[in-house]
Design goal:
It is built from 19 helices and 27 strands. With 666 residues, it is α/β, with parallel strands linked by helices. It binds adenosine-5'-diphosphate and zinc ion.
């Protein structure tokens, strides 16, 4: 009987709301449809998740209108979103809202769909027809296809070094799924950074592919979503939210570069797309492939416990060697040359040699801007953002000091705002300075820079990569934007200006991120016939993350890192839930954090509670931030307990509480 309906609403209140189904709608109302319901003196959108005969409260209001003719959220996605709301602690309505295009959240019935991909095409070197697989690739494909055939849930961790042919395996597995009349979802990190990968799917499967990414304007996104729900598109390639695509008959999920932190959503619902992928595959009885050259500690650990099946690609296609990696100890450089230098002699010589041979070079530094801080030589003041606890970075192109957290900008002062002295000095290196120094040292080289500043104009990203591909550029300087997925066979040298930028971050994943990034960057060298070389400059040449990256030895890195994680009770040994208290007033923030901790101690038994302590960046956009960490072995027990506890929590006025389960960084 469809007398009453439980409605999920996308607001941060962790419950459902009951409404009466008017007689006239009884035949029309279905689970998974959008409705308009009266809520606090206005009409808002909700989603029907359940029907019932009885309502337990009085004064129940009626549903105003049913928006959809038929369900737009499948039973299957409802189940998935319910799991998300329980696992990442948000309301069911908030989780459901994350699965549909923005225009539908506003209650529209149909939208003028606009064609287009939202980003420019970038030339790819791959051909459209399948390759004859190597023996290693064949093995991997065979076991995945076996599970697809049997309609069995299973997670494979595909550990394959860069250019070992992982993507080709994905493509052929999808082909197999397609032949069975089933659909596939392929997750890739931040599409804007991996256009070449996306191209390979569209060039192999054409119109059958729907591409979902954040740069799509509303009407384009709706068009792709519609092609999926209507069954026209059989393969979805997209960033993390593509895991919610309304495909029917799912046969395979692929999570490429599964270690990427961009799979974690930073806003509500704060889900991890890799974990959602595993749950969705379980609900669909299909296999998942998690692929990476540098698997996350979590996944590799689970593989060791046989909870995932590890499959390997150990050789590069055509048996090409991995590039040789040299570590340059910049402390020695400092000692012998008696000054801080940006480039070691060996790096300069190698760049020159590559240029002489008409080869291409990539220079990597994971920090943008020109100088990274401004310091008064007289009184010692370091210029900071007024709204954030962060140091202002000098950007040469815009002649301004910029906050990298809130984008506050100001002209650089000539005199010190504290002591009125005129000794403001600029220190630290960003990509802008690297570019200008390279231009000075190699005046005849054609140079471009790629970071979020240089590519903020639409299309410039594609243009720079296109020019580099055509060899109209000799040297490309960039941040992590140039680390991922790019395939330029003429690049024989990759230089890392300072590998310690990520290593020194206050984050338990700092070593992992450094290892991943160095491995990725190194993978850009030597993809062609001429081989390749990588030079890593560092002040910490003995660190295991740098040493094992230089030897392309993931397992050595894993063995070292897993020890540290165990000692410190970090993932994968314990799950972390981070509670952040924010307010505009420092004292109020601190007080509220301590009170919340006392409250949690009473409510949560057998869960380790750490803190409260200020966030690594303790103030952002005028909000002071303090954290409390919960640590425990069993995520679902922790989440259930916390969810229950928070129902009784009375938050002080003016304070914001956010909860992040399995945070990507600290
Ligand atoms: P990965 O995804 O591991 O980086 P790719 O799938 O991109 O590796 O493969 C690297 C290169 O080798 C690509 O240019 C791809 O087209 C090519 N390739 C992949 N598999 C084969 C194969 N079996 N035979 C020949 N070339 C291949
Ligand atoms: Zn700021």
């Amino acid at each position: 009987m469809k007398k009453f309906a439980d409605i999920a609403i996308a607001i941060p209140i962790d419950r459902l709301f009951t409404y009466r189904v008017p007689k006239t709608f009884k035949n029309k109302a279905e689970i998974g449809e959008r409705v308009f319901v009266p809520f606090r003196n206005r009409d808002i959108i909700g989603y029907i998740v359940n029907f019932k005969d009885k309502a337990d409260t009085k004064g129940i209001k009626e549903i105003k209108r049913i928006i959809d003719e038929k369900p737009i959220i499948s039973k299957h996605l409802l189940e998935l979103t319910k799991w998300i709301s329980e696992t990442y602690l948000c309301s069911w309505g908030q989780a459901i809202a994350a699965t549909i295009p923005g225009v539908l959240k506003k209650g529209k019935v149909s939208v003028k769909a606009r064609a287009g991909t939202g980003f420019e095409k970038i030339p790819v070197s791959t051909e459209t027809s399948p390759h004859t697989l190597t023996t290693e690739q064949e093995e991997v494909l065979k076991s995945v296809l076996f599970k697809i055939e049997k309609e069995d849930y299973k997670t494979y961790l595909l550990h394959g070094i860069t250019a070992s042919g992982k993507t080709e395996v994905y493509l052929q597995a999808i082909e197999g799924v397609l032949n069975k009349g089933k659909t596939s979802i392929v997750l890739v990190p931040e599409i804007a950074l991996t256009p070449q990968t996306v191209e390979r799917f569209t060039s192999r499967f054409g119109e059958k592919v729907a591409v979902m990414h954040s740069a799509l304007v509303g009407s384009m996104r709706y068009r792709e979503w519609k092609r999926i729900i209507d069954g026209e598109a059989k393969i979805v390639v997209g960033a993390r939210s593509a895991i919610f695509s309304p495909v029917k008959n799912l046969g395979l999920i692929i999570v490429d570069e599964e270690h990427e932190t961009s799979y974690k959503q930073e806003d509500v619902p704060r889900y991890h797309a890799r974990d959602v992928a595993l749950m969705r595959a379980r609900l669909s009885n299909c296999p998942v492939i998690l692929g990476s050259a540098t698997p996350s500690l979590e996944s590799f650990y689970l593989a060791g416990k046989k909870r995932l099946e590890l499959v390997r690609l150990t050789k590069r296609i055509d048996d090409k060697d991995l590039p040789k990696v040299k570590i340059v100890d910049m402390r020695m450089e400092l000692a012998t040359r008696k000054k801080l230098v940006m480039f070691s002699k060996i790096l300069i010589d190698s760049i020159q040699k590559a240029l002489d041979k008409r080869q291409q070079v990539m220079i990597f530094l994971n920090r943008r801007g020109f100088s990274t801080y401004v310091n008064c030589k007289k009184c010692g003041l370091v210029l900071k953002c007024k709204r954030c606890d962060s140091v202002l970075v000098y950007h040469y192109e815009t002649k301004s000091l910029v906050c990298h957290y809130c984008n506050f900008r100001m002209p650089p002062p000539d005199i010190c705002p504290q002591c009125r002295g005129s000794y403001m000095k600029y220190f630290g290196i960003g990509t802008e300075k690297v570019e200008s120094e390279i231009a000075r040292l190699f005046p005849r080289a054609r140079i471009a820079r790629m970071d979020t500043d240089a590519t903020s104009k639409r299309g410039s990203h594609a243009r720079i990569l296109g020019e580099f591909k055509k060899h109209n550029l000799d040297i490309l300087v960039g941040t992590q934007m140039i680390a991922k997925g790019l395939d330029f066979p003429r690049v024989t040298l990759v230089g890392v200006v300072n590998s310690d930028v990520t290593l020194n971050l206050p984050d338990f994943r700092a070593s992992e991120r450094t290892f991943n990034l160095l491995t990725q960057v190194a993978g850009r060298a030597g993809r062609g016939e001429e081989g390749g070389e990588v030079i890593i400059q560092t002040y910490a040449p003995g660190h295991y993350a740098i040493l094992s990256a230089s030897k392309h030895d993931y397992e050595k890195f894993y063995r070292e890192e897993i020890k540290t994680r165990d000692e410190l009770s970090f993932p994968p040994f314990k799950h972390i839930i981070r509670l952040t208290i924010r307010s505009r007033n420092e004292k109020r923030t601190i007080d509220a954090s301590h009170k919340l901790k006392d409250f949690l101690i009473k409510k949560l038994k057998d869960i380790e509670i750490v803190g409260p302590a200020p966030s690594p960046i303790s103030k952002v956009r005028g909000f002071f931030r303090w954290n409390i960490l919960l640590k425990g072995k069993n995520r679902s027990i922790m989440c259930q307990a916390l969810r229950k506890a928070l129902k009784a929590y009375r938050k002080p006025a003016g304070v914001i509480l956010t909860i992040d389960v399995d945070p990507a960084s600290m």
